[in-house]
Specification:
Organism: Lapidilactobacillus achengensis
Strand content: 15-25%
Helix content: 40-55%
Structural class: alpha/beta
Shape: globular
CATH superfamily: HUPs
CATH topology: Rossmann fold
Family: Belongs to the universal stress protein A family.
Protein name: Universal stress protein
Domain UspA: 14-154
CATH class: Alpha Beta
Number of helices: 7
CATH architecture: 3-Layer(aba) Sandwich
Number of strands: 5
Largest sheet: 5 strands, parallel
InterPro entries: Rossmann-like_a/b/a_fold, Universal_stress_UspA, UspA
Strand order of the largest sheet: 3-2-1-4-5
Number of domains: 1
Radius of gyration: 18 Å
Length: 172
Amino acid sequence: MEDLASYQVGTMHYSRILIAVDDDDFISSRRAFDYACTVAKIYNIPLGVAMVLETGDMNVFQSLSPETLSDWRENITRDLNTYCEKAREFGVLDVQPLLAEGNPGREIAEKLIPSFKPDLLVIGSETKSGRRKTLGTHAAYLARYASCSVIIVRSDAQGAAMIKDIKRDTAK
């Protein structure tokens, strides 16, 4: 306890933020993106915007078709550039697009984080039943294996449901 008694709270600052966004999950990606842009703007630090083309989502015929693969790459590149432009319009001065292909969790943890070197990864989390996996389903993997701090931002819908549950539980 002596260490705690002499401990004084110090300020903590991030120097680089990586935000992972997903075309398949705009709701939670939007909230996480808003948070990452806000922190990057306040601290005036670089923001890496990452998207991963999930090649596992393609069927065998799509993956063998150069035109289909090219169309998917073109669409994800366009969307990535749109996110970067939105961050710049918001006031983030240093925005860098990062694109990878493969399994999102592994690509972010093993390739994008080591190359961009963030000290904070921001990711949204929401999954919908009956739909293919979204980046949010990789949040637990990234929280465990990322070599930097991770903040998982929940979507409005989940936050509202959680607040409702808390109110119901405390009313009992």
